[in-house]
């Protein structure tokens, strides 16, 4: 009887030790991640509200996809430097400070402001269809001739400062559902041209990202069915009371459009 109890007790100790060691191995295998979020207003979270007061005019939001990712994954460190209105040169000058050789993950959306996104939308809303289409053509020309070099400069700078990082470059959604619920405003011809310009920008960005060994996250599919004029929009339309949030994702666009794409690529 005593022997059987001793055997049982020893087995219990052995089983507990195995479990403890297995748990320790699992814990040690779980990678710690140092995450830096760069970019423009689509990364800072303009349009989603809940802005971090210390971020000032950069309008970084606790509901932006970088904040949501960090909250869900508890990285070892999280630096959020994306800023509303940023162009490629702003990223290089003002956002790369937290990057270093220990950085594991970098996310970024950039290029829309360089290509004149805000001016395109202002022109299309306030001026004639012909003027709008001409402005879109100018933006597409910029994407062909100038933007690739500017993206190269940003991506080279990221690689130089964080050579071991996995870099995820996120694109932009299409703004409009064609033939949708909107009965006033821009014509479907203009809406189609604006969507096409977004696709054009995304394709150019994806090519630059791939050439640098980065991952490109196309969010257009996630936003499908949630464009402006869809009846279930994840994007602000023109907001005369808050122009800066116009054509930016709502909180639902950050959590339902951007976050799943980053999760799939991180």
What do these coordinates show?
This protein is of the alpha/beta class and 266 residues long. The protein is built from 10 helices and 5 strands. It has helices at residues 2-29, 41-44, 65-73, 88-95, 117-126, 129-145, 147-161, 188-211, 220-223, 251-265, and strands spanning 34-37, 77-80, 105-108, 166-170, 215-217. The chain has a 5-stranded parallel sheet with strand order 2-1-3-4-5, sandwiched between helices. The protein starts with a helix and ends with a helix. The relative contact order is 0.13.
User: End-to-end span in angstroms?
Assistant: 56 Å
What is the typical, i.e. mean, pLDDT?
Answer: 91
Low-confidence stretches: 1-30
**Outline type:** globular
Class based on secondary structure composition and strand pairing: alpha/beta
β-sheet strand percentage:
5-15%
How would you summarize the topology of this molecule?
Blueprint: H1 2-29, E1 34-37, H2 41-44, H3 65-73, E2 77-80, H4 88-95, E3 105-108, H5 117-126, H6 129-145, H7 147-161, E4 166-170, H8 188-211, E5 215-217, H9 220-223, H10 251-265
Parallel strand pairs: 1-2, 1-3, 3-4, 4-5
Helix pairs in contact: 3-10, 4-7, 5-6, 6-8, 7-8
């Amino acid at each position: 009887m005593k022997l059987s109890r001793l055997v049982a007790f020893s087995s219990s100790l052995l089983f507990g030790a195995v479990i403890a060691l297995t748990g320790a191995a699992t814990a040690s295998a779980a990678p710690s991640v140092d995450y830096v979020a760069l970019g423009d207003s689509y990364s800072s979270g303009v349009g989603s509200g809940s802005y971090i007061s210390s971020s000032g005019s950069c309008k970084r939001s606790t509901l932006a996809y970088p904040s949501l990712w960090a909250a869900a994954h508890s990285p070892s460190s999280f630096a959020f430097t994306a800023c509303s209105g940023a162009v490629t040169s702003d990223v290089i000058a003002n956002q790369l400070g937290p990057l270093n050789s220990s950085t594991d993950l970098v996310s970024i959306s950039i290029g829309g402001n360089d290509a004149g996104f805000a001016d395109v939308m202002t022109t299309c809303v306030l001026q004639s269809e012909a003027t709008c289409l001409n402005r879109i053509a100018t933006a597409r020309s910029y994407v062909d001739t100038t933007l690739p070099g500017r993206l190269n400069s940003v991506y080279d700078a990221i690689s130089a400062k964080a050579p071991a990082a996995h870099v995820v470059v996120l694109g932009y959604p299409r703004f409009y559902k064609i033939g949708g619920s909107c009965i006033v405003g821009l014509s479907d011809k203009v809406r189609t041209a604006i969507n096409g310009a977004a696709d054009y920008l995304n394709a150019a960005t994806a090519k630059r990202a791939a050439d640098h060994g980065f991952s490109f996250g196309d969010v257009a599919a996630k936003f499908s069915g949630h464009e402006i004029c869809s009846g279930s929009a994840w994007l602000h339309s023109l907001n005369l009371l808050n122009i800066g949030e116009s054509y930016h994702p709502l909180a639902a666009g950050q959590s339902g459009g951007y976050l799943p794409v980053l999760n799939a690529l991180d």
